[in-house]
Amino acid sequence: MLAASALVAVLCWSVRLAGAATGHVYVYDGAEAERQQATASRSLSPVQARLVLAQRAGVEDYHSADLREDGVLRAINDFGRRRSLFAEQELSRKALLLVEGVRDAEAELPQLSHYRSFAIDDAPGASATRGLWTDLGRQSLPSVYPSDLSDGEIIESMQDIQSVSHHDFLYIAKNMPEFQRVLDYVLKVDKHALTVYVSPPGQYNKEGEWDVTSPWGTYEMPGTQSPLKKREARAPVEEPLELEPEENYFNSTSTVPNSASAPLAVLASNESGSPLTGILPACFPSLSSCQSSTRNCTGHGSCRLAYVDQSAAAQSPFKNCYSCQCTATKRTTGSGGTKTTYWGGPACQKKDVSVEFWMIALFSVGMVALLSFAVGSIWGMGDDELPSVIGAGVSGPVKRS
Q1: If both were cysteines, with which of 157, 255, 277, 323 could 306 make a disulfide (CB 3.0 to 4.6 Å apart)?
Q2: pLDDT tens-digit profile of 237-281?
Q3: CB 176 within 8 A of CB 102
Q4: Do residues 215 and 46 make contact, with C-beta atoms less than 8 angstroms apart?
Q5: Across all residues in the chain, what is the average pLDDT?
Q6: Same domain, yes or no: 272 and 208
Q7: Which helix (H) or strand (E) holds 338?
Q8: What is the mean pLDDT of residues 91-109?
Q9: Are residue 200 and residue 328 in the same domain, yes or no?
Q10: What is the reported pLDDT for 245?
Q11: Do 167 and 106 fall within a single domain?
């Protein structure tokens, strides 16, 4: 009898753990997109769920290593961000919300039951989930969450209501009423593709005890260039400074290095020929972040205040928009002439080749037209009828009566 009671207790505890380790993700891409494609809810692995979250955040390029796993492409097709060809209004912004420690979100907020959703079996713990959220922030909004910020600072910023705006944003709700307030705002603005992850409650969720057994998987992060090596003492004859080996990307499971091991890519010289890595945003919240992230516009322009969003809150990082204003560069050719080069891109790192493009395009069109005319002329000559030989003096003798 005692053994049977112990067995029942173990089974109940196992069921409790299994239920507590299930997270739920809700997605919404607008009423028109939801009506066109309805998808039944199902369960995904943490890796499949991460690929869906990355696609909806617009940073799937950093997570391409796991695209070949079974079920990933189907999960992205079913729950990824959708765009309707015939929708009157496109939800161009992205909002990712994290709600921690809720057992049954649909019971507290029945509105969620109308959205497409999927479950995450054996969901990772709180530390792994917060690490994923900070990584998604660094990948999608590098100007707001640069690499010199620690994970704690990023999480604190994401928990601030000021981070919610008309632009792309990630938010961590402390409770359901706060989440409902942000959800109502997002639906009222009607500009965001909504993604909500409700993490399960439980002891593991506070301490992250299951982070190792249920990871989110491996993915890449924006690369940074290490600064110059510091030398403790100078020799009488100094050797040239050496750069540490450059690392474009590094693998991460759920967390990223702190500011000491991953400094912001700040280059003192604009003459560096190495390309800028990562996805550069169009706007930066401050002049210093614009100059450091773009290497002072790679020496082909300068950072200036593009506009001020009057609708944003005073403390919002999206209020000011600093961007690069590119200028043309001139150089003297060997023949004594001057060649002007125009630049573009978020860091003025892209050379304008529109003149060369149009020259090649017009030359190609001209050659195609010339060949078409030549072939048509030859074809027309072949279609002409040959002259009759009857009236050409070669007919036989006429019979005389």
Answers
A1: 323
A2: 344 444 444 343 333 433 433 433 333 333 333 444 567 766 788
A3: yes
A4: yes
A5: 75
A6: no
A7: strand 338-341
A8: 85
A9: no
A10: 43
A11: yes
Q: How many domains does the structure of the chain reveal?
A: 2
**Domain carrying residue 306:** 265-351
Domain boundary among 351, 367, 393: 351
Cβ(62)–Cβ(54) below 8 Å: yes
The letter for the amino acid at 21 is A
| Lowest mean pLDDT, pick from 189-193, 283-287, 390-394 | 390-394
Domain identity same for 100 and 168: yes
Backbone φ, ψ for residue 44 (5° rounding): -125, 160
Rounded CA gap, 62 and 338, in Å? 42
pLDDT tens, 141-195?
888 888 788 888 999 989 888 778 778 889 998 888 889 888 888 888 878 889 9
Tokens of 106: 């649909």
**Residue 345 belongs to some domain of the structure:** yes
Boundary of a domain, candidates 334, 351, 368: 351
Q: Specify if 22 maps to a domain.
A: yes
pTM value is 0.55
Residues 132 and 67 in one domain: yes
SS3 call for 146: coil
* Max avg pLDDT among 25-39, 213-227, 318-332: 318-332
User: Residue 234: inside a domain, yes or no?
Assistant: no
Backbone angles phi, psi at 186, to 5 degrees: -65, -45
- Four-point Cα dihedral 262, 264, 268, 274, nearest 10: 80
Tokens of 292: 């450091």
Q: Phi, psi (5° rounding) for residue 351?
A: -80, 135
pLDDT value of residue 48: 92
Shared domain check, 169 and 25: yes
Asked, for residue 200, whether it belongs to a domain, the answer is yes
Residue type, position 393, single letter: G
Q: Which two tokens stand for residue 241?
A: 């400074």
- The pLDDT of residue 382 is 77
